[in-house]
Design goal:
Layout lengths: L2 E8 L5 H12 L1 E7 L2 E7 L9 E4 L2 E5 H13 L3 E10 L3 H8 L1
Antiparallel strand pairs: 1-5, 1-6, 2-3, 4-5
Length: 102
Amino acid sequence: MDDLWMLTYDVRGEDRSTAVRVCHLIFGRKNSTTKDGRPWTYDQPGFIHRTGVVWVGQSVLILPRVDALELRSHLERMGVLVESNLAVFRRHSRARKARVSS
């Protein structure tokens, strides 16, 4: 059974550089560089690309505990206000629900 955590974060409106870094962390980015002297572009996935992570809306995600702790740590190091564990959700299999209701 996996614990799912709700995580919310807030970046001050006037802190645009931190807001951009947070967007790259959450949503990912496309990087361009050179490889063997030629232009090369690659995707750097964000947290929303991880298995089990759900973007609920502006500054709100539901994610597995391990990912929530990692993301919280990254955001706090950037100086972002983070609230996590506002609610802990537990996944229940359909089989377990069926046993409980019978």
